[in-house]
Structures are given as structure tokens and as C-alpha cells.
Design goal:
The protein has helices at 16-22, 51-58, 80-87, 92-100; strands at 5-9, 40-44. By secondary structure, the chain is α+β, with helices and mostly antiparallel strands. The longest helix is centred in the C-terminal third of the chain and has 9 residues, at 92-100.
């Protein structure tokens, strides 16, 4: 397989080894129109205390990785009141992860 762009949601649901392997599929031809396409890997996720936190938040800046934080208040398309009500069923740690984007 050969991809110039790989994107995924909920990257915390896969193993780090699988994520790293995808970089071996990220390539382009040496010549022709596809040779000019930039190679990109993008991922999104809700917070979780696993390898994603280590890779993007703890080590991220020093290794040129970009982490864009977000929380419920940043998403005007969501009915915040009803979502907060739904989050009440969760334990406090999981609720903070989903509402405040708390990775710790």
C-alpha cells in the first residue's frame, strides 16, 4: 500500500506499534504528479492515559509533533448542556477527559 495522507480518529484505540507501522505505508512515487503531494499523518482522539499522551504531549514539542488541545467549550456545534448532562453518568476522571480535554 502507498498513501500520501493517513488520517484517523480515536487513535488511542490502536496500539502504538500499529500507528508506527502506518508510517511505512506513507510514501509517494519519485516522479509524476503524485511525487509533489506532501506526506502527512493526522490523528484525533479523546484523552486517554496511554502512549498517545506520551508521544504528543510529553515528547511532542521536542520531536516536532503538534498537539492541538480542545475541550467542549471549543465546539459551538455541540449542545453543551445536554452533553454535560450525559457526562454525569461517568466517573469524575472520565468526565474531565471528555469535557475539559484533561489528559492527566
Amino acid at each position: 500500500s502507498e498513501f500520501q495522507f493517513i488520517g484517523m480518529d480515536e487513535v488511542t484505540e490502536i496500539r502504538e506499534s500499529d500507528y508506527r507501522y502506518l508510517f511505512s505505508r506513507l510514501r509517494r512515487p519519485a516522479t509524476g504528479p503524485l511525487s509533489q503531494i506532501p506526506l502527512r499523518m493526522r490523528a484525533a482522539s479523546n484523552p486517554a492515559p496511554n502512549w498517545v499522551r506520551q508521544r504528543f504531549i510529553v515528547e511532542g514539542v521536542d520531536k516536532g509533533r503538534i498537539f492541538v488541545p480542545s475541550k467542549l467549550a471549543d465546539n459551538p456545534g455541540v449542545d453543551a448542556a445536554s452533553y454535560r448532562q450525559a457526562l454525569q453518568a461517568l466517573d469524575p476522571v472520565e468526565r474531565r477527559r471528555l469535557e475539559e480535554g484533561d489528559w492527566w
